[in-house]
Amino acid sequence: MTRLVVPLLAALLSVSAAASAQEWGQVTGPAPGPAQVIGFYSAGCIQGAQALPSEGPGYEAIRLSRNRNWGHPVTLDFIKRFSDQVRAAGQSHLYIGDLGQPRGGPMSFGHASHQVGLDVDIWFERHPGARRAAADRENPRLRSLVRADDGGIDDAVFSDQHVALLRMAATSPGVDRIFVNKWIKERICNTATGNRAWLRKLVPWIGHDEHFHVRLYCPPGNPQCQTQATYPDDDGCGEALDLWFKRPPVQMPPPGAPVRPYRPKLPALCQQVLKAP
Question: Which CATH class is domain 40-246?
Answer without folding.
Answer: alpha beta
